Amino acid sequence: MNGTGEDGEVPGDARWAFGTGFEDPLHGVVAELPPGVDGAAVAGVCVALADDALVGAQRLAEWVTCAPELEIELALANVGLDLLGQARLLYARAGQVDGSGRGEDDFAYRRAAEEFRCLRLTELPRGDFAFTALRLLALSCARLALLDGLRGAADPVLAAVAERGVTEVTYHRLFAAEWVVRLGDGTAVSRGRLRRAVGEAEPWLAEVLDDEVGAEWGVAPGAVRAACAADWDRVARQSGVPLPVPAPAGGAGGRAGVHTPHLPGLLAELQGVARAHPGASW
Amino acid sequence: MNGTEGVDGGWPLFEVFVRGKRGLNHVHVGSLRAADARMALTHARDLYTRRNEGVSIWVVRSADVTASAPDERDPFFAPSGDKVYRHPTFYEIPDDVPHI
């Protein structure tokens, strides 16, 4: 904010009835990496969280033009755009601190599937609306726990992005939880769809619960599992459909570059235009 | 059935009022469909406040709005058109009283 008028309004703001006062989440944040902080490690966290967001946003965008209601279509697109915004800031930060000088487009459009570090749950096909709501719930609960801890990260930019992301993801979790409750507490059809969605997601939940990507950056060990278990229990009790909290599974997953066969197809669509026209801008 | 309860068993219509950051009161911004008031609030948040417009939302079922009819316009509103003495233009308004 650059100075305020007599009545507390920003000068020049008066001609806009709505939609003013946008804030840059990185305003006033020092971009310099503090001494002793490992740039490559910061980049690793940033890329993992950005990949979750980018791939998740792409799956949500698949609902545009075919959501069950216009209002839901816009809601899902909004959530996707929130995530895309987080991804852009995180990719930009990763390129700054890993010494490569890569920009956000290099991370999004010019990496192969095995270079992505997203959780495998993000990659699974869009599925029906019940699966979308359930997946969004699972991922939002975990992401919220991560971002909450990362507000204390040693990198000021990562901490600022987390700070902004917390409010966004809190709403994503609310939106998803309300729908999971509605579906579970709804008709026989909606309950059946939700049960099926739970079954489809279950094999991939342990990886979400035991994600320690934020360890050493402010996220306490086991914080994600504890937060998710509490959230899922609350939702399950209201929806009437149990949400499993699987035991640790072990083995390499998305954070190690091991992905499902669904990721290459998603990336082919996401990266198609950028790869067909290298260096183009629009 | 008054045309606002949805077609083919669809969701009922709600009217949305948003209080802008700079506004003093809630202003009607549009309408949307939702299964209940709680869903209407989240839909309104996603449809009408995505460009940082609002700090507060009201929703109300369209069916619950009682409106004046167009053919009642003259008896309703014409009589006030020539009664200038109803306007507070004969008073001095102090400079430090805002929003009048």
UniProtKB/TrEMBL annotation, chain A:
GO cellular component: cytosol
InterPro entries noted in UniProt: Aromatic_CoA_ox/epox (IPR052703), Ferritin-like (IPR012347), Ferritin-like_SF (IPR009078), PaaA_PaaC (IPR007814), PaaC (IPR011882)
Species whose genome carries this gene: Streptomyces sedi
Pfam families: PaaA_PaaC (PF05138)
GO biological process, one term: phenylacetate catabolic process
Official protein name in the record: Phenylacetate-CoA oxygenase subunit PaaC
